[in-house]
Amino acid sequence: MLGSLRFKLPALFLLGVVLSGLISTLIAIRFFQSYEHTRAVAELRSESVGIVQLYARQAGVQDVPVDKLQAAIGGDHIFYAPIAKGVELFTGSLPTLGGGAVPASALEGKETATLNLTVRGKKYLAVARPLRLGNVLFGAIVVAKPDSQLRSRWVTLAERLALAFGGGVIVAGLLGVYVSRRLTDPLLRLSAAADEVSAGHYGVELPEPRGNDEIAHVTGRFREMTTKLAESEQLSRNFLMSVSHELRTPLTAIRGHVAALSEGVFEDQVAREASLDVIGEEALRLERLVGDVLDLAKLDAHRFTVLQEEVDMEQLCERAYTAFGEEARRRSIDYRREIRAHPVIVTDGDRVLQIISNLLSNAFRWTPEGGRVGLELSASNGSVSVAVADTGPGITSDERERIFRPFWSRDGSGTGLGLAIARELAVALGGRIDVQTAPGRGSRFELVLPGPAE
Asked: For burial by CB atoms within 10 Å, which of 1, 96, 293, 417 has the most?
């Protein structure tokens, strides 16, 4: 609990508020003390002017109304500090400080002197103003405020600041807990989801992200990650099922024919040769399947090498076209080619032939009997294009990107490697594959490669 973010975040937030509040309070009290000291000195100086004038006029009179004067000026204390020895003025009604309380040097050439006095164990802030009768300095009138009076003001301020500080800490604590929950709740849900994903459960549900902050961004990316992991796992299952099926079919055929040959089932030479032809065809089928898987692995690992040679694209398209002629005749498919250019480019001819063959194989797979498949070669704007069009069912917008993913198949049959390898090979050759399709209107796959160098 103490080590969790739900505790640490509000604790750190509250600690920051407390420290900043204490520092602000101390600074405020210090400034207030300085302000009160300055203001008290100014008040004492102002009061001392009138009091000195009054006592100068009343010199020698013993009944100066000290109590009334102190009440009039707010209860400040008034003292008389004799300077000249043997001179005692106002001894009847005015408290007298010792002669050393205000040194004569402190008043020479000055209107006032600020003092810190201790009288009968009490501390005072005082202002002394010289008392002159004529040109003779007889003493000083001292107007003083008790330190306790000054202290009570900033103590009151400190108490009020403490109350405000306590209320602020409570509000900050509640705010910190609220913010902490807002931040940690999505993180806790993400953590729980991560535990589920680590256990192999990719169908975990995540709450919709609120706002556009970093946590919402992480939640969205985590959802995308789990979706891709689920798709990857499904693709892996599909791959295992598809490859197992694709491998089992030719292996079963090969094993059956080998057993028949070994047991002498086929008595005439023609039947034995036909059986050997089937074994050869199924072996080639296995070789193509293994080759596709190896090609995809090499492309993913960026360990695929591309040859550079002059390639006559017209002859290459003719080879690819001819390879599917028998299938087109057998299924009554209108199979045509259109050569609009005769480019010769520098590329890997075998890989280009593989791409075109994969595109044609995909077109024949999805074109129904009696449909139409076309092969077109053209060149323009420094590029060479080989297009394969069909009259199949077309591709939806959701499936347009999925068809290029390895091991993904629309109907669950086949390995789903043909188009994936075609696109990866096209990129490796410096080209691309564009798709134009619509549901119910067929598809057109176009291989675009760099044209001949000028």
From this structure: 417
